[in-house]
Design goal:
141 residues; alpha+beta; Protein Transport Mog1p, Chain A; 30% helix; signal
Length: 141
């Protein structure tokens, strides 16, 4: 697996753990370390999308938990968490992206689910829990 994909996957797993309700100093420290390592320090914890977030990728209404951008090895990628009180955050996020021209494949795993959406430019993977969603964005290969 390409190193960039490993880093993005590590951030995704850490963020999904946060969305799932894991807490404590150990998790927080691990997440901060993984995000900093994966993004080279381009991290937003202030409720805004990270620098360079593609304008044609909408996110659902809610509170932005953190965002990170990765631009190593000539590639770009972003990770963003959104906490929301929507009844079905994954479905809402998928619907918003489909309305923006993305096509989707969705899989449910217990209370969590995953949707992979693409358009001609971007690949978006959304991991959802009842509390919110995690977006992982990369260019289409």
């Amino acid at each position: 697996m390409h190193p960039n994909r490993v880093r993005v996957l590590a951030v995704a797993v850490a963020a999904l753990a946060l969305l799932s309700g894991c807490s404590g100093e150990g998790v927080g420290g691990a997440v901060n370390g993984v995000v900093t390592e994966a993004s080279g320090g381009d991290v937003s914890l202030g409720g805004q999308l990270p620098d360079g977030w593609p304008a044609d990728i909408p996110v659902i209404e809610g509170d932005l938990g953190f965002g990170a951008a990765n631009s190593t090895d000539g590639g770009r990628g972003w990770v963003v968490t959104v906490t929301t009180d929507a009844a079905d955050p994954l479905s809402d996020a998928t619907t918003v992206l489909e309305a923006a021209g993305f096509s989707a494949d969705t899989a449910n795993i217990g209370d969590a689910g995953v949707a992979a959406l693409t358009n001609e430019t971007w690949s978006v993977v959304i991991a959802g829990t009842p509390e919110g969603v995690l977006y992982t964005v990369s260019p289409v290969a």
